[in-house]
Structure formats: C-alpha cells, structure tokens
Design goal:
The complex is a heterotrimer. Chain A is an alpha/beta fold. Chain A has nine helices and four strands; from the N terminus they run ααααβαβαβαβαα. A four-stranded parallel beta sheet of chain A has the order 1-2-3-4. In chain A, strand 3, helix 7 and strand 4 form a beta-alpha-beta unit. Chain B contains 17 helices and eight strands. Chain C starts with 10 loop residues before the first strand and ends in a 36-residue tail after the last strand. Classes of the chains: A alpha/beta, B alpha+beta, C alpha/beta. Chains in contact: A-B, A-C, B-C.
Chain lengths: 197, 423, 183
Amino acid sequence: MRKLPLISDRPLAKAGLNSERVLMPNKGPGVFEEEIDGIEDALGITTVEKAVAWAQSNSMWPDTFGLACCAIEMMSIVSSRYDISRFGMERFSSSPRQADLLIVSGRVTHKMAAPLRQVYDQMLEPKWVIAMGACASSGGMFNNYTVLQGVDKIVPVDVHVPGCPPRPEALMEGIVRLHEKIMAGIPPAYQLRGVAQ
Amino acid sequence: MSVVERVTKVYEGSRIPSPIPTVLQVDTQKHALDDILTINFGPNHPSTHGVLRLVVDLDGELVAGVSAVIGYLHTGFEKTMEQKTWWKCITYPERIDYVSFQVNELAFVLAIEKLLEIEVPQKATWMRMCLSELTRIHSHLVWLGTSALELGAISMFWYTFDDRDATLDLFEMVCGTRMHTRYFQAGGLAEDIPEGFYEQARQWCKKMPKAIDEYEAILDRNAIWLKRTKGIGLLSADDAIALGQSGPVLRASGVNWDLRKNMPYLAYDEVSFDVPVFPEGDVYARYRVHLEEMRESVRIVAQCIDRLAEMRGEPWIADDRKVVLPPREELHTSMESLIHHFKIVTEGYMVPEGEVYQCVESPRGEFGVYVVSDGGPKPWRVKFRAPSFVALQATATCMTDAAIADMIAIVGSLDGVMGEVDR
Amino acid sequence: MTVTYEGVPGLIETVEAHAETTLVVDTARVVEACTHLRDEQGFNFLSDVTPTDYLGWGARGVSGYIGTAAGRDMHGPGTQGLGRVPDPKPKRFAVNYHLLRLADDPVRVRVQAWLDDGEAIDTVIPVWPTADWFEREAWDMFGIVFRGHPNLARILMEDDWDGHPLRKDYPIGGEPVRFSGEE
C-alpha cells in the first residue's frame, strides 16, 4: 500500500493552514485512494500522475501578460497561421485565478515587477512560467536603472524562449518543450528552485 | 482642401478638464461622493492595450473621474541610447512603438542624416516610403483586430492578423525578420531589395483591398458595433489641437492635417493619395479614418513598387565611406576601405555637432525625434515625441459622460501603444 | 501669413541651422513669448517640451587618445574624442519647446530657455494644455521645477524614486555582465 505524501510535509502547514490532515498527521490514504491504487497495478493503466500530466499539458490556460513587443508575437501565435488552439491554449485567461501558465512577454520594469509578482501569486498551483523573449529572460538589450535583468529574479521560470521578438514558431517550441517537461514528470519551477540572485 | 475646411463644432466650448487637463475629477454637483467607487484598471488588463493603469471613479456605470497612471514600461531608451554609438542606436527606436517599428527607425535615421547632411539615393527613399506604408497597414491591422476584440467583435482579430502575417512575410523577405527589422541605415538601406519582392508585393496589393472591404462589411453593418462607437468619445477640433493630438485622432475631428501632405518628407509629394478626414470626432470616425488610411496606403505601396521595379540595379545606400560600410569585396584590395571599415565598426561614425527635430507621420500621429549631437560617436541627447503619450492625455476630455463600457472603446480608439508612452 | 520673430518678448538670439529656427528666450519671460507666438504668429500646436542636460559638454577632449581624463568608459568602443571641441553652453539645462503652426502654411520653430540647476521655470499649461505630461516628465527625468503646474508628480518612475534619471550625473545603472569564460 503506497502512502500518499501528507499535507503536513508540505509548506501549507507552515503557512498556518489547519486542515484535517494537518491536525491528524498520521491519517493515511482513504479507502477510495487505496482501491484506485490497487486497480492501477491490476489493470496496468497509466498512473494518476501521468494522466494528470497529460491533462495539464493539453489544456493549459495562459494568462494575458503581454507587456511589449513580444506581446504582439504572442498575439500572432493566437492567430490562424500559427494556431495555438492546437495545443488547447487559445483560451487566454485575464483572471490569474483561472490561468495555469504565465507567459511573460516583454521587458519588465521595476515599477511593473510588483504587479507581476502579485499576478503570479494569485495563480493557483500548479503553475508554470515561460519567460518569452530576451528582455524577460535576461533584460535583453536594456541594461539600465529601470529594466529588471530577467524576470527570473522575481518569479521562478520554467522555460526561457530567446529572440527579440521570438518568432511564433520559437514560442511554440518553448510551449512544446514545457509540455514535454510536464509529461516527463518534472515538477513546476517553484518546487525545484526559487528565484535567481 | 484647406486644413480647417471640414471642421464642424462637435460640441460648444472646451471640455478639457481644469485645473489638471489630464485628470477628470468628480463633479460633486452631479455625483454624491458616497456613491463613488474608485477602482483600478490594469496595469495587467486585457483591454488596456498594454500596461496602462487607469484609476477610475465610478458612479454606478458612469465614469465620474479618471486619471491615467503610466510608467510601467519605462525602459530608459533615451539614457541607454546616450551610451551607444549611432549605428547601434538604430536598433532602439524600433522597440519604442513596437507596432509601427519601421516608422520609428525612419524618424531616427532621417534625423541623423539631417545632421550628417548626407545624400540618400532615390531607391532608398522610395523603399523607405514603401516600407513605411506597409508598416502603417501593419499597425492599423493590429489596432483594428485588438480594438474590435475589446468591444466584443472577437472574430475580427483572426481576420486582421491573418493579413498581418501576409504583410510580415514581405518584411521577412526584404529585411530578414518579421518585426524590428533594422533595415534602415544612415545613408540608405542595409541591403539591396531581393528580386522576388516585387512580384509578392504586387500579389499582396491585389489581395489587400478585398480584405479591407471584408473588414468593412463585417463591422459597418453590425448594429452593436455602430451603437458602441457612434457618438462616443467626442473630441472637438479645437480641443484636439490644444491637446496636441495628431494622426487619426485629429483627422477624425475634422482637421485635415497629415504630415505626408502638409509637410512632405521622403518622396510623398511624388505619389498620389488622399487623406481621409471625418468631422464627427467620435470613436466611429476614428475607426473610419483608420480603415480609409489602409486603402490609401495600399495605393501608395502599389505606386512605390512600380517605381522601384524601374530602379533595379541602382545603389541602395550613399557612397560616403566615412559613414557607410564599404562593400566587402573591396576590403580584400583597398587599404582605405579596410581602414574605413575598421573605424566605422569599432568607433562608429561621427555626427557633426547640432540639434535637429525630425518628425514623421506614424500610424498614430506625429512621431518626432529630437537629437542633440556633440560631434562625437554617440548621441548627447535623444528625445522621442511619442503620439500615444499625447493621445492618452486626451482620455479625460473624451470621457465626459461616458459609461465604463465606453471607456474601453475610447481608450482603444486613441490607439495608444504603451512602449511609446513610457519609452 | 508670413511669420516674423521680431516681436517675441524676451528674445535673446535667433539661431538658424539645418533648416530649423531656434529662438533663445529669457527664462523669466517664457510664458509671454509662448503666448505671443500662439496668438500673434499662429503657433497653435505644441509638439514637444524637451529638456537637455549639458553637464560635461565638451569634456571629451580632442580625438587621438584612448579614454578621457575621468577614465575609460566601459560602454564605449575605441576613442572617445571629438574632431573639434564644441562651444560651451550658457547654462546647464536647456528647455526646448517645439512649436508648430498647424495651418495651410505650416511653420515649425523651437523656443529654447536656459536654466541652471535649482532654477525654476513657469509652466505653459495656460498656453497649451498638452504641456501637462511633458512637464511632469521633465520634472521626473531632470528635476526641473515648473512653477504653477497643477500636478507636478512623478510620471514614469515610481512615486518614491530617488533622483532624476536622465541627468548626466545619474549612473546608467544595470548589472555588470559576467562572462562564463572568466570564472
């Protein structure tokens, strides 16, 4: 019988969450979970994680975080020639609560850094970040008092897409690689690393 | 047609708010302060055309007060350009108004050429004009797609962006990349025009007018579109001039002012085109100006292609070796060419001392570049007069008696690109 | 209607260069001069209000050696020198107003007023309301105070930013670029 990871192992407990699982740390998996466990082994179907990964990667909803020139190429990937609907991603969600993916497209200034972090925090786990373009990845051609030298200084980034601006095909490559990462079981960036120094 | 011929009085007097011309403050006579709800639009908002933040005082659905907060995309272009040589600087202006990138390059390059007093070959002038008009169409297509999207006519986005991709194909063929092409140099063009361009551009010129007719057919008979744009966001001609508006916003208020006709640059006085002017001063008039301008731009592009096809084989950049790189073949045989190449690449060319203000008609209005040179390899000061910066100042004036849904239409119709506003 | 600059109040000098006219006016009489140009000469359109900081003007020295007296500029390639040292400027800041007569016979002119650090200049919002944000940007970027401006606040930088970025003594900022070969 496989023990599922307990919520008390995860940071939520430290954040002050008082749920049943936290209050009763020795509570094991329920009856249903144990039944499912057995069925998967019996029938040899894909594990829950793989199914979940498939679902996550094939219907990821990006958040509309277009800032500058890269936003125009991001809009271009929504258009009919470089269709993003084939990935199930045409539903750009303006509300971060309903978004899975934050495509930071464009230069991030110090003034914009606070709203960006706020939007990122409002997204629900699991969430991924693509830093699109040279400016979001590393500050681009602007190394000055106002441009953040890479958005990975404030949010953990999964995929960096180079280009100024990256062609829609390049952004697609980034999206496909992100999907491959998820399917391979690599956790989102916030579980692996923090922000850059 | 004279500059002020088609002006009709859209409203009496002036609606510019006072004491701050750019902030609409709550009129306590009309709205009780208890009813006011202050909310924040943006900077991350689907309908604000980039990172614009509007702090809005709402009385129910009516906008009682509005003020714009900008600066979320302030990239420090002007200070950064003071650190780069003139040649490297040309990549920067493109990213300022990232939707009409070649027009910004053009303004900067024309300013440098004014200071250098260098003569640009005819072929370069006509190609610059052709690409400027293609950029104008590109910008209007993006505007139309996104503005219609914000007002709910979602399918327009896909129609206009498909034609935008066809336009970007032309850019890619000539300049090597879709956006931010960096094709204009001080003295002319970076490279010769490829042979297949003329044929593909002619095909595009045949296809575009039908596409524009299609857009008109989709929107102009749509009762919702008409209801949401007619009579909304009124701006009279006097207010528009006082507020420094230019481009489609000014022409939609009845003022016949277009830099291409009234103060021609490049070869605009040698091509025939009309300037659309509408007197109503509302969002619908601005939409019509954009649409008609697209048709006129296609006419100009067709004329440019015909003229360029005659100029095959002519030089595309000036011959001044102190400013322009020599052709690579010469580097093998000529010592002077090698020295010129070395000096231009490492140190950069020197632009004589002086200050100029060069403006062009960008798709948004008068895009001006003020350049101060001290005679050295880097600019001393570069200032960009962005038309969107000025257009956003008019939001408070246009917003008299607007509902919150109208606010989206008005901000969209002023065609602001935040990269320009914040620089 | 031909334009004449003789009657402009506070006019110090008229400079013609590169087919452009620059009117240098006395800083204390800028609003008078602008009102005269708008009402008498028809300059109804203000294109731009641009300050320029001339601190360090002409300090680069003449071409022929690498670097300057202050040291080598890390952003700069090759020599830093000029062919000829430019003429010195009267004061540190110049505020340029680019005016346009929007009419059938259009004319452009530049009005220039010189200021020292700490000097204030009157706002031209009463003449052209469009000057509002231009002057705010001038305050934000250069620290030039516009007397009488109804809302002189930061516009491009954050509200609590320290310093005025486009001044010549403000550093460019940013991060030093680390090359992996060095480590």
